[in-house]
Specification:
single chain, about 240 residues, binds 5-O-phosphono-D-xylulose, Aldolase_TIM, metal-binding, Ribul_P_3_epim-like
Amino acid sequence: MMKSLCGPAAIAALPRDRLIGEFSLWSADLANMERDLKRIEAHADIHHIDVADARFTPGFLFFPDLVARIAKLTAKPIHVHLMVEAEIVEAQTRQFIGAGADLISVHAENGEAGLRAVKLAHELGAEAGVVLRLETPVAAITPFLSEVAFVTLLGTSIGVKGQSLSEQACPRLIEARALMRKAGREADIVLAADGGIRHETVPLLRAAGAETVVLGSLAFGDPDLARRMAWLHGLEVAA
Ligand SMILES: O=C(CO)[C@@H](O)[C@H](O)COP(=O)(O)O
């Protein structure tokens, strides 16, 4: 399937006047990925692919050849979330951009190596973002703010699906937005919430300033995706 836009242009073209639906392919039926990609193609704004190294995270998730195959089956942008140790983040950035990622998000906990990976992503023609574990102080995103187009805050423990949203998730989004504003980048950066995305939590996250939610079971478990996405797109942000 041909993409009309790739890399930074694809990310810049995401809608900013409504909530963005980012679909987490970890929550697809992994034995029927092609079928699920066809089902969500008209509904997803962006695909979210979790990559985990079983060191930064409890287990392994996704790999470049699989992402390259997925990239051939969709025209939607691909966001690769690298949940990996600092020593491999640059190599993984290179490999997943080679596989077709439009946007690579690295963890702020990777420090200087994460910043180098962001620069590398740009050099390789991709967009870059930063992600934060739930337990890391929000201020850790600050060194990344001048460089990234996405800030993603985890609302649950890293690398485990099916969890409930932490009470800290909404205050942390508000804090992240204040830092984006202070850095003069509020209009340029998309603020995303990942983990614990449920029917009851999406309005709360939206009201706290989330512009994107990473949908797992809420999307893949819904038999009526058109209705689910119409509901999601209609949620207002707090004044
Ligand atoms: O990374 C995560 C969760 O941390 C998501 O990408 C999962 O896909 C979420 O699945 P659900 O818990 O919403 O079913």
